[in-house]
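Appendix B, Record 12. Input sequence as logged:
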Amino acid sequence: MTTRFAEPMARLIEELRKLPGIGTKSAQRLAFHVLRSPAEDATALADAIREVKKHLRLCSVCNNITDVDPCSYCTAPTRNVRLICVVEEPTNIATIEKTRSFNGLYHVLHGTLSPIGGVGPEQLRIANLLTRLPDVDEVILATSPTTEGEATAVYLANEIHKLKLGLRLTRIATGVPAGSDIEYADEVTMTRAMEGRREF
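Logged structural output:
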């Protein structure tokens, strides 16, 4: 017998289920937590969600999530503008920044190539990367060492080589375990991966 909830609760559960990693049971637990919380907590959560959607955007240069455009990385005077690290997601930037060993700029693809998932080059933010390259000395491909991450790195390498710009193209070392996501790499592992990058 299927449990029936009041319509507002059923709607909240359904919306929460749309979040990544949240199944029906987790969505129900979260919905009941919201219900039991003080009204001001629920309002604060709703306001925070609205503020994110209203004020955050993608940086017009690197595609990082930001509230100012260009973002703070792209405008920082201390960063090396001739070095670009290409990552899959904005969360990967935080992992690299924790190492304190990289002072270049970033470029966020917002995903990886995945033919099975219907993600081709046109779904990724590659075009504005290629327009940035004439003023760059090195591009570091820091996609995760998964099948999709490797395929994306190979595709990007081919596209960059076609431009014949003579820049240095490197790939992060396998201090990051094969098949894992760099978002979960610790600082030491990520530092070794950056320091041990190889020509690509």
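The chain is about 40% helix and 15% strand.
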